[in-house]
């Protein structure tokens, strides 16, 4: 599954594919670009996935005002969508015995659509927490 979380609405946008390849990633970015045609997009990613770093995908992002922001290694907890992925695992996959990938995909889709109908904007994450770390763009680049 490849997914994006719109923080302004709290809604998830996703695609399920058999394999994780750069062309699938690029096709997903194209759907995001069509959804928000006039805006610069910031896509938060973990640094370990090759499809996100393929030269053609990077060139397309540069040409289409899509900024890929790679989190530091072992800092996936900074990406809000990770909590959404955990919820998908818990509510749609744990304790199930799907007879096929197609049935599993339907269950995941049903859960995400259910969540999207109840979505609220994501804001104010850990605003008063002493453990909140402010990572600026320059600090992100220092770690790579």
From TrEMBL:
<protein>
    <submittedName>
        <fullName>Transposase</fullName>
    </submittedName>
</protein>
<dbReference type="Pfam" id="PF13358">
    <property type="entry name" value="DDE_3"/>
</dbReference>
<dbReference type="InterPro" id="IPR038717">
    <property type="entry name" value="Tc1-like_DDE_dom"/>
</dbReference>
<feature type="domain" description="Tc1-like transposase DDE">
    <location>
        <begin position="1"/>
        <end position="95"/>
    </location>
</feature>
């Amino acid at each position: 599954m490849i997914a994006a979380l719109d923080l302004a609405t709290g809604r998830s946008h996703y695609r399920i594919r058999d394999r994780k390849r750069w062309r699938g990633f690029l096709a997903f970015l194209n759907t995001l670009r069509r959804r928000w045609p006039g805006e610069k997009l910031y896509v938060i990613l973990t640094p370990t996935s090759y499809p996100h770093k393929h030269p053609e995908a990077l060139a397309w992002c540069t040409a289409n005002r899509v900024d890929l922001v790679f989190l530091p290694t072992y800092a996936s907890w900074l990406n809000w969508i990770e909590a959404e992925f955990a919820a998908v695992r818990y509510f749609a996959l744990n304790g199930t015995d799907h007879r096929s990938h197609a049935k599993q995909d339907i269950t995941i889709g049903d859960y995400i659509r259910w969540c999207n109908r109840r979505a609220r904007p994501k804001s104010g994450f850990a605003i008063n927490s002493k453990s909140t770390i402010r990572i600026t763009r320059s600090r992100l680049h220092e770690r790579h």
